[in-house]
Amino acid sequence: KPEAGPPNSPWLTVSQYACQRRTTLYNHNKILTDALEVLAENYEFIESIGPCLGFRRAASMLKSLPAPLRNINDTEGLPCLGPETKAVIQDIFECGSSSKVEEVLTDERYRTLKIFTSVFGVGPKTAEKWYRKGLRSLEQIASDSSIHLNKMQIAGFQYYEDISKPVSKAEAEAVGHIIKEIAGCFSPDVTMTLTGGFRRGKEFGHDVDFLLTVPRPGKEDGLLPAVINQLRTQGLLLYSDFQESTFDLSSLPNRRFEAMDHFQKCFLIVKLKKDQVVGQQAEQRCGRDWKAVRVDLVAPPAERYAFALLGWSGSTQFERDLRRFSRLERNMLLDNHALFDKTTNTFLQAKTEEDIFTHLGLDYIEPWQRNA
Ligand code: TTP
Ligand code: MN
Ligand code: MN
Ligand code: MN
Q1: What separation in Å is there between the alpha carbon of 42 and the centre of ligand 4?
Q2: Helix, strand or coil for residue 5?
Q3: Which ligand has its closest atom nearest to the C-alpha of 28?
Q4: Are 183 and 212 in contact (CB under 8 A)?
Q5: pLDDT class for 49, splitting at 50, 70, 90?
Q6: Which residues line ligand 1 at a C-beta cut-off of 6 Å?
Q7: Each residue of 109-123: pLDDT tens digit?
């Protein structure tokens, strides 16, 4: 493994933008980034978005470094590190841990919100509301009759044990085979791509993300309803939240370019039979031969595929920086649907992700280098 460089080595050329860095899954500074991400999450829980993003950006930058930092002097010249972040890093080098982080980890509020937000359909706002009511455990929530759970949260509690466990690569591929077969019946020329964390090379994920489309314009509108119906018919559909497309290119870019996109999509929980997973025996533990798995499907029109693929491949931090870079360095607006050049007032077309990087004047970053 390479030694950390002395000052004036490649350290000094690290970009503040994740889209100008190559970040693989091998994180040489995990002790530091884990600590910073705890603080980021705590700020997220108290809805301090500025500090939250600051800590996330710092952690993301450190993940891209080719070697571990050895001491606080190594941070010299590195971008994205504010005084607060540097103080945390210094504490870890001097004391082996950061008192600020330790404090958060033992904080009742942080611990409780961490548990509550681990339920599918429960965000920081809902978690906070429950915490303020004095609730502290999932058992208390489930048995409190004054709490109204929505459909998503009910499913979140119902399948909690399964969907809080990581999904393996083999399970993701098994889900892929099932969906591909169904989608192929709807239209033999369907294109389907595994996106999200698995496309970035992760061995485990919290869900499985797929992008699907068909060549004929407009035909994609029927795709996800057909897939959902067939999953239901086969008895594999445990939960479904279908969102109709609200995509309209003519209304862009006047509407705010957003993180959430307007393509047809669905958030599902499907039943995955254990004997469908390669390398896994159908065990009869609990009398159950299946596992509930969270699956996201999105169906953009074919001509928007490259933008949707780039947007759904993540990581979240990589996406944030792609957009920030486009806006601040190129006077362009990028989102999951399109790239708009504000200087020439034109949309830039793209067939592939490479086309989009080229429009932005960026070196191509492979999916497995986007783990920012
Ligand atoms: P996630 O599935 O949330 O995250 P992930 O696949 O990177 O990690 P994990 O292994 O934990 O599942 O989101 C994948 C990408 O999809 C992420 O970059 C954000 C993007 N996304 C959208 O663009 N629009 C959406 O509506 C949603 C839900 C996600
Ligand atoms: Mn490396
Ligand atoms: Mn995912
Ligand atoms: Mn997802």
Answers
A1: 22
A2: coil
A3: 2
A4: yes
A5: very high
A6: 196-197, 202, 205-207, 209, 260-261, 296, 311-312, 314-316, 319, 336
A7: 999 999 999 999 999
